[in-house]
Amino acid sequence: MKNENLKKLILFSTLAALIFSLGGCVTKGTYLAMEEEATSLEQNLMDLQRQYDDLSQENAALKEQVDQLNQSLAAQKEENENVLAEKQNLENLMRERTDNFSKTIAALRTNMEELKTDNASLVNDLQNNIANLETENLGLGEKIIALELEKEEKVQQLSSTYEHLLSEMKNEISRGEITISELKGKLTVNMVDSILFDSGKAEVKQEGLAVLQRVVDILKNITDKAIRVEGHTDNVPISGGLAQKYPTNWELSAARAINVTRFLQLQGIDPANLASIAYGEFKPVADNNSEEGKAKNRRIEIVLVAKE
Fold first, then answer.
1. Coil, strand or helix: which one is 275?
2. Average pLDDT, stretch 1-16?
3. How far apart are CA 234 and CA 289, in angstroms?
4. Are 192 and 298 in contact (CB under 8 A)?
5. Which residues, listed in sequence order, are joined to residue 187 by a DSSP beta bridge?
6. What are 127-182's pLDDT values in tens digits?
7. Of 2, 29, 132, 235, most Cβ neighbours within 10 A?
8. What's the Rg (C-alpha) of the chain?
9. Per-residue 3-state assignment (H helix, E strand, C coil) for 61-128
């Protein structure tokens, strides 16, 4: 409404001005021309008004855009300030870490120098130890060779003893009264009880002493072995009056083993190398269900073993 009144006022003023300029004497043609001109001016005015309105809207939109840009600029400025602050913090942290890294490198170099010195000393010690070990190993190698030679010599000596016993006791061996075995450095002379003892007796009979003497003559020169005399029986319990002297087979086997051991001592074998062991019926070599098996189980074993 305000714009409409403004338009009418402008049109009236324009007409009045034209009339006044013509001295108040206006013809109809003139009036119509003036009215047409006024209408044209009004149209121009409306166009200008529309341009004005459009420009006002555009101006308002531009102001709003400027406000948005100012807000964005303020936010960007704040963000830039934060980025700068973070950059400063990172630079400070990087500087601190660089200083620490430099200190660490310096410490590591110092440690490396110390390690080089220590390692040089360690290497020298190791070289000395290696040289000592090589010398020691050389000596041990020589000792091993000497021990092997000694062992071989003893094995040969034991084998020689075995061969000698086989030759000396061949008659008893052929009759099954004696068996001789050699296994892993252990030589065993197995003698059935009947060749040494009368039934139920522990004293070695004269024939048995003669057999033992032939064994002793061969064994007495062996000084690097222990001689173990083992007594064994069958599983028949001791009975009758004999049980008063030997309550069980253990006592009988012990008495027989001790008597044989004493004879070996009397013939000059070092008692420090002698031992008597009683096994009674508990280490059979044959089945006790037959007379033949029982006879094999009643025995004295003279065993040559390594000294402890």
1. strand
2. 57
3. 10
4. yes
5. 182, 304
6. 888 878 878 777 776 666 555 545 444 444 557 778 888 888 888 888 888 999 88
7. 235
8. 67
9. HHHHHHHHHHHHHHHHHHHHHHHHHHHHHHHHHHHHHHHHHHHHHHHHHHHHHHHHHHHHHHHHHHHH
pLDDT confidence tier of residue 14, bands split at 50, 70 and 90: low
Give burial (CB, 10 Å; 0-12/13-18/19+) of 239: exposed
**Total Cβ atoms within 10 A of residue 141:** 10
Go through the domains of the chain in sequence order and give each one's CATH number: 153-306 (3.30.1330.60)
Phi, psi of 53 (to 5 degrees): -60, -45
pLDDT at 211 over 70: yes
Q: Distance (Å, rounded) from C-alpha 109 to C-alpha 140?
A: 44
What's the confidence (pLDDT) of residue 151?
A: 47
Q: Using one digit for the tens of pLDDT, what is the confidence trace for 74-104?
A: 777 777 677 677 778 877 877 887 778 678 7
**pLDDT of 53:** 83
Half-sphere exposure of 242 (CA within 13 A, CB side): 13
Q: Residue 48: its pLDDT value, please?
A: 83
User: Which amino acid appears at position 96 of this protein?
Assistant: E
Q: 180-206 b/e with 16+ CB inside 10 Å = b?
A: bebeeeebbbbbbbebbbeeeebebee
**Euclidean distance between CA atoms 107 and 4, whole angstroms:** 92
37, 38, 45, 252 from 48: Cα distances, Å: 16, 15, 5, 153
Q: What angle do CA 151, 154, 157 make, to 5 degrees?
A: 155
Which contiguous run of DSSP H or E holds residue 278? strand 274-280
pLDDT of amino acid 149: 44
Place of tokens 């074998």: 269
